[in-house]
Amino acid sequence: MKKQASHWARRALFLLPLLVAFLLLAAAGKARAALDEATLQGLGAADFGERIAAIEAVGATGGERARAIIAALEAGELGTAGGRVVIVRDGRVVDAASGEALELVADAVDSLRVNNRVRRALAVANAALDLESGERARRLAAAQTLRDNASEVVLPVLERALESEEDDAIREVVLLAAARVNLNADDPAKRLKAVTALGQSSDAGVKTLLEPFLDPASEPDAGVREAAAASIAAIERRVSIARNIGTVFSGLSLGSILLLAALGLAITYGVMGIINMAHGELLMIGAYAAFLVQGLFRAHLPEYVDWYVLAAIPAGFFAAAAVGVVMERTVLRFLYGRPLESLLATWGISLVLIQAARVLFGPQNVELANPSWMSGGMELAAGVVLPWNRIVILGFAVFVLLLVWLMMNRTRLGMFVRAVTQNRAMAGCVGVPTARVDTLAFAIGAGIAGLGGVALSQIANVGPAMGQGYIVDSFMVVVLGGVGQLAGAVWAAMGLGIVSKFLEGWAGAVIAKILVLVFIIAFIQKRPQGIFALKGRFADN
C-alpha cells in the first residue's frame, strides 16, 4: 500500500506543473479573447478616430486572429451585423472575434468603409503584426513603418520586439520607433531616455522632432533640454559626414564615367594627335550594342536576361573598335599632322553616325533595363543612398583602367604605343610599324569608348545624341591630365568629378560648370603640358 501511495504521489507531482501550465494558458486565451472582443467593437464605430484606435489596438494584440481581421478589413470583407463585428468571405459569415460560423446571410452585413486615414492605420497594424514575422526583410520593413508612424498603442509591441529581436539593424530601428513614442510621455525619465536614443539617428528629420525640447516653455526639465541639444549636435555631425561621403561618392561616380569616356581618347590623341570629335559617338555605339544584346537575351535567353550586361561588354568593345578601325583606315590616316582638317572630318563623321543611329533605331531614346543585381542601393543615412549601379560602374572603371595599364606597360603593343607617342619618327627608324600601331591604338581607344557606352547605358538615356554631352568633358580630362598620360587622366577625371559635385551643392550645376572651365583655362595657361607631362628630350615636341 505504501509503495502504491508513493507511486501516486510521484505521478501527482509530475502532473501538477502540467496542470498549472494548462490553466495559465487557458486563462491567457480567455483574456486574449475578451480583449479582442472588446476592441473589435471599436472597428464598427461611426467615429473614424475611434475606429483607427481600434485598428492599432488589434494590430498590437498580435496573433493569427488579429492578422485575419486586419486582412479582412483591407479586403472590404469586414462588417457589422446584430451588434457584432463579422467577416464575410465566400458568402459565409463568421464572427471576427472567435472565427465561428454564424447563421446570417451576407446581405444582412453592413460593410465597414475604408478611407485614406484607415488605410494608414492598417499599414501601422500590419507593421505591428509583421514585427513577429520570421522573415528579416518583413521585420525590417515593419520596423521602418512603425518608426515613422508609431503611436502609444503599439508601444508594447515595440518593447516585446526589443526583448526578442536579435538583428542589430532592426533593433536600432525599433529603438528609434519606441523613442519617438516616448517623447510624449509624462515621465521626464522616459523623455530623457527617448531623447538620448534619438541622438543615435542619422535622419535629419529626427532633428525637427527634438528642436521643441530645447525650449523651456515646451520642456520644463533641464536634463531633457541638455540631452536634446547634445542629440541634435550628434545628428547634425552624423548627417554632415554622411552627406560629404555621398558627395564624394557622386564625384567618384561622375569621375569614373569621365574616365571611361576619356581613357580611349587619351590613347588616340596621345598617339596620333587627332582631335576626334566623333569620340562621343563611339560611346553611343557601345550603348546601342548593349541594347541589341539585351534584345537577343530577351528573345532567346529570357531566363538569363539579368546577365545581358556581361555579354554586352565584349559586344560594345568590338562594335566600337570596328567602327574605329574603319574611321582610321578610310579617313584619319590621310590627315595626320593636319589638326584642323582632322577636327572637321571627325565632326562630320559624328554627324553621320548620329544620323545612322536615328535611321536604325529611331530618334527616340531606347529602353535598357537595369539588372536586378544592379538595382537598389546601400543607404548610408536618411536621404543618402549609394546606388548599386554606380558602385558597379566605379568598379568596372577601375577594372578597365587596370587592363589598359597592363596593356601599355606589360605588352609589346604598349611599348610601341608609348614609343610612337614620344617620337613617331624615331620609333619608325628603329623598326616600329607606326601605321599598324596607329590602327591598333585607334581601335583600342574606340573599344574603350564602347565600354564606356555600355556603362553609361545603365545610368543615362540611350539615344542618337547621347555622346554629344561627353565629348567636351572628355577633352577637358585629357588636356588637364596630360596628353597620353593614363595617370593624368585618372587624376583629372576623379578630380573634376569630385570638385564638380561639391561645387554643384554650393552654387548649382550651371555655376559649377563655369567655375570648372575657368579653373581649367587658368591651369592650362600656367601649365600647358597638364598635370603629368611627357618626360625626356621630346617632351617639348
From TrEMBL:
Belongs to the binding-protein-dependent transport system permease family. LivHM subfamily. It is found in: Cell membrane. It comes from Pseudothauera nasutitermitis. One of its GO terms (molecular function) is transmembrane transporter activity. It is a multi-pass membrane protein. GO terms for biological process: amino acid transport. GO terms for cellular component: plasma membrane. InterPro entries: ABC_transp_permease, ABC_UrtB_bac, ARM-like, ARM-type_fold, BCAA_transport_permease. This is Urea ABC transporter permease subunit UrtB. Pfam families: BPD_transp_2. Keywords: Amino-acid transport, Cell membrane, Membrane, Signal, Transmembrane, Transmembrane helix, Transport.
